[in-house]
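Allow me, if you will, to draw on your knowledge of protein folds for a short while. A protein sequence and the structure tokens that stand for its backbone fold form the material at issue. I would ask you to consider whether the tokens describe a fold that such a sequence might reasonably adopt. Thank you for your consideration; the sequence and its tokens are set out here:
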Amino acid sequence: MAKMLNSEYHDLTIIDSDEERLALVSENMDVLTVQGNPTSIEVLTSAGVSKSDLFVSVYPAKEQDVNLVSALLAKQMGAKKVTARINNAEYLSHENKLLFTELGIDLLFYPEKIAAEEISDLLKQAEMSEFVDFAHGKLHFPGVWLFQSSHI
């Protein structure tokens, strides 16, 4: 995401507690980096959250509480729009989305769920014209082609 936004000439500040990951990001992109926990008010202040147009929390922790807390803090500190990555489908119900909106989070997104829905829709639309033969042609299975991209 940072690479895409950076290529569109947005000014980015990346917050991460992993110094090596930040060094790698700095080597490959023209961005500011701030080392620390994104739920720290001091770290968020150092990153200039109060002046940001958009705060996107995609912290790579298994539990996504860090993303919710940092997004809520960023909004209260002055970020115009905030969004947070989640991994709990319960948060996406209409009532719960309203709750998070009232708390100040403008958008929640669940990338794995979005990807699964896209794949499901694609499979529903796809015509199976490729078949794989087994047992010398006595058994036919529809073929599904999988592609892997390093850009995903």
In short: The chain is about 40% helix and 20% strand.
